[in-house]
Amino acid sequence: MTSTTPPDVAAHVESLIPKFQLTRLLNSDQAGRRISLLGTIDSQDALLIAERAAFDTSDATTRSFSTSLQNIKNLGANDIYAWFLANSNPSASGTTPPPPDFKLNLIYPCTPKHIKKYEKQGLRVVHETPAIYKSYTRPYIAAQHAKGTLQWVYNILDGLKEQDDVMYREHGDAGFLLLPDLNWDRVTLESLHLLGIVERRDIWSVRDLTKRMAPWVAHMREKMLDAAVKLYPQVDRDQLKLYVHYQPTYYHFHIHIVHVALEAGMTQATGKALGLENIIAQLEGLGSGEDASMADVGLSYNLGERSELWEKVFLPLKEGREVRVD
Amino acid sequence: MTSTTPPDVAAHVESLIPKFQLTRLLNSDQAGRRISLLGTIDSQDALLIAERAAFDTSDATTRSFSTSLQNIKNLGANDIYAWFLANSNPSASGTTPPPPDFKLNLIYPCTPKHIKKYEKQGLRVVHETPAIYKSYTRPYIAAQHAKGTLQWVYNILDGLKEQDDVMYREHGDAGFLLLPDLNWDRVTLESLHLLGIVERRDIWSVRDLTKRMAPWVAHMREKMLDAAVKLYPQVDRDQLKLYVHYQPTYYHFHIHIVHVALEAGMTQATGKALGLENIIAQLEGLGSGEDASMADVGLSYNLGERSELWEKVFLPLKEGREVRVD
Questions:
Q1: Cα(A195)–Cα(A200) distance, integer angstroms
Q2: From CA A198, how far away is CA A226, in angstroms rounded?
Q3: What is the pLDDT of residue B277?
Q4: What's the predicted TM-score (pTM) here?
């Protein structure tokens, strides 16, 4: 990337930056990775907007990445998952290190399934009819349960693991606990991201919600909002957005609670996220009795081309081949 | 931010990171600000996911930000605008500096209008009940129509304006036209973004869709998909995602058609976007007869604190004041 500016102009504008005197922070957005600073240069107003740059993905840089890190500080660990903050900056080894500029997640040892999840892949939009759900998706989810892939959630619910991370807990029919999402730094309120994990184990996904359960879902919504604003009194109720994923990463009903200012990425996008209030409204509006459920409606969503559901269900359906879930 | 991990566990997982040996880069996403690396630690597979952290926005750090920068390199300059790369890292001053980790924009001198544009606007989550819609939102929309704010859309539909941009057109009850979205470069297929604007003028927003109209919406969906893949044969039907906004930017029914790989931001997020297929499913599921409509369900969405609907409707409601729409 070479400059197109004449050298004298480049030298001039480069000399302006260190003269910038802060007046105030105007904004911090893009998940806190951009800041807009108002200040003055030679007594005239100036705006300085700074963004974290993209990673250099050259082979040499990625190869030395893990050994170049300074001041690696573990934030939490559970089973094969551990998360950290770290610095790119050598002066971080001093007594007053600069703020960390990397968040790290380590999965070790990892499985081929983890690799698949993090590898770049094409996406497809699928339409899951009630019949497809019943014949293929639900049996697929049941197979995941039978394999014991939910054990880590049950360990948390049973108080066996990650109890220090549990920020709030309530028992009973409307029992749930709140955990910080792995992607949240646990500090920046505007990127607050909590997970509300319900205690009951009979709801595998949004598909299991019935019209009869609409008041329960609405009640869970209120309780989780109550707990979140109690934990973070600086956040107002109407600054929190609740949604669920379909398909979720794991098949035990959980609700994402995020600050409305959190940079919206794929995790909040249509095709992945369903607004909780809109689900409640959809359940309430369902026409065919109290047992009518989200299993009776069509749901469209995105799938990665390497996801099991695409490979085992939707690609065979598209190609007119036989579907074998297990 | 303190770790919740026992010190010996923390020390162990921290010692794993420098032992990570790269196998290959799996992905670079979040606008390049996250990388997923596959490697090995003691011959076992490991995944290391690194993200650029949020800026530290403490007063001390922001105050010294401009003077802490190393290796400031101008990329371009035009009038009051200049853009740069820079390093946070002191070793950047050496002969082989590490890759820059900041992008900077300088606007100097800047005007109050620039400041307003970059200053944070808070967002609020509002829940629009059918009663609020009927009493306040619908009259607000009617007032927008009465003011003639839709004239530019009618000019396009009537063939009077922007005809060079119309990529596809069909007349009749299921008539519509396709335009490129302003944010699309019209070239990059993976960021394809079209607008499908319907010809009929009686649908101001998703709120006007009734159960009776579900087949019409489904038909429009098919027609728009047909047209899009005819225009861009390299794109498959199941690589296209359709959604509508509520609140929309203008109150004439239009559908967003995007490539599923398009980086999902606020435009696709829950609280703003509603998946078209899910709307069709919700309409079909409605219980109270053919005239049941989206006006009868609750809808939650985000509003900017400087938006008219927040200032005129939802803030007064929150504060128990009288609502005056006009």
A1: 15
A2: 15
A3: 95
A4: 0.77
